[in-house]
Amino acid sequence: MSAVFLDRDGVINENRVDHVKSWGEFRFLPDVPEAIARLTRAGIQVFIITNQAIVNRGLVSRERVEAINQRMVRELERWGAKIAAVAYCPHRPDERCACRKPRPGLLFGLASEHGVSLSDATLIGDAWSDIQAGQAAGCETILVLTGRGAAELPLVPDGPTGPVTVASNLGHAVDLVLSRSTIVA
To answer: What are 64-92's pLDDT values in tens digits?
Structure first.
């Protein structure tokens, strides 16, 4: 396993119907920093990808989204987690960009920039659009039941390689990733 791509809202932090518009509204889900730190200790690169249409909807500025992401990364580092990069799509769904999940543009961009083999990577998300992006990029995928995951589970059909893997939360998903990883000495 070379890399794990994590969705942000609903996987790392609480998903808000009114969106995370400031650091004061950002709340880590239970045990998330520890779970990401376990990936770091295993030598797996961790990337965060997130749709943030609130930018092009005019609800927050790019600078605010970037400040929230930078603060999240700093807080995770305090727990021993290392984030290789954070990428977000600022576009609204009607803009039909290549980077908004379910399209795989964010994955392709980070993989190219960081030399990641997507066929040796896992995407963990809480929405069918996350799973679609991971599958389109050739990643293994895991749907977590936090955030929107429990509500979206009935919408998720079997993937091209069989049933989609489901985990109760990020800690459980990390357990699955680490159980599949083999470390070559």
So the answer is: 999 999 999 999 999 999 999 999 999 99
What's the structural domain count of the chain? 1
9, 31, 94, 130: the catalytic one is 9
pLDDT for res 126: 97
Helix 32-41 vs helix 170-180: crossing angle, to nearest 10? 20
- The answer to the question of residue 17 being in a domain is yes
Residue 185 in domain: no
Q: Is 7 a catalytic residue?
A: yes
CATH of the domain at 135: 3.40.50.1000
User: Are the C-beta atoms of 26 and 67 separated by less than 8 Å?
Assistant: no
Place of tokens 């809480």: 126
Is 94 catalytic? The answer is: no
Catalytic residue among 7, 31, 120, 126: 7
Show the beta-strand stretches assigned E in the chain.
Answer: 3-7, 45-51, 85-89, 121-125, 140-144, 165-167
> For tokens 């605010």, what's the residue?
64
Range of the domain at 55: 3-180
pTM greater than 0.70: yes
Chain mean position to CA 113: 17
pLDDT given at position 4: 98
**Residue 141 domain-assigned (yes or no):** yes
